[in-house]
Amino acid sequence: MKRMLLCTGLLFAATTLLAQQGPPKSPPATAMATIGGKNITITYSSPRVRGREGKIFTKDGLISHDPHYPVWRGGANSATTLLTDGDLTIGDLSVPAGKYTLFVDISDPKAWVLIVSKATGEWGLAYDASKDLGRTAMTMAPPASMVENLTYTISDDGGGKGTVSLVWEDMGATVPIAVK
């Protein structure tokens, strides 16, 4: 009887703790598209601005505290991943079919650089430049208004071509993609 009461009490306590946590501050998100018959997926955790507008991308802002700054993990929590079942060109970078980790060099606020890493399965802050597949320039354009939730989109522009975009806070960056 004591065991049953103890188990019931532990189950109640665990349920109460989980219920109090609420939704995650940076929930998982996915951007997907089929371009030229090939599936492309970006999986990431989407942080929120939460009142920190103008304090995220500055030299002393939120991201500047990451150990690999100015290289940013392009999301929160675990690494942002790219999965493609076809060979791609992202910007001017050839990317064979497979799984990769995405990072963004934000050292120049007017010219971000997308980094495609061959390393996969790591926590988002585990950047190792020696594992880069390559880097490609992104085109910067601020969103029309402040974007609360970090958002990636993949659009099919037709003819085997598309665009990857990343927007958050007052920053927006895009890069063209093409299926080979």
Give the distance, in angstroms, between the N- and C-terminal Cα atoms. 67 Å
Overall shape:
globular
* Overall average residue pLDDT: 90
Order of helices and strands: HEEEEEEEEEEEEE
Beta-strand segment tally: 13
Unreliable stretches: 4-19
The largest sheet is:
7 strands, antiparallel
**From the structure provided, what is the oligomeric state, counting identical versus distinct chains?**
single chain
How many domains would you count in the coordinates?
A: 1
Strand content: 35-45%
Describe this structure as you would to a colleague.
This protein is mainly beta and 180 residues long. The chain has one domain. 11% of the residues lie in helices and 44% in strands. It has 1 helix and 13 strands. Strands 1, 2, 3, 4, 7, 8 and 9 form a 7-stranded antiparallel sheet that branches. Strands 5, 6, 10, 11, 12 and 13 form a 6-stranded antiparallel sheet that branches. It starts with a helix and ends with a strand.
Ordered list of secondary-structure elements with their pairings:
Elements lengths: L1 H20 L6 E8 L2 E8 L25 E2 L7 E5 L3 E3 L2 E3 L2 E8 L7 E5 L14 E6 L1 E2 L6 E12 L2 E9 L1 E9 L1
Antiparallel strand pairs: 1-2, 2-4, 3-7, 4-7, 5-6, 5-13, 7-8, 8-9, 10-13, 11-12, 12-13
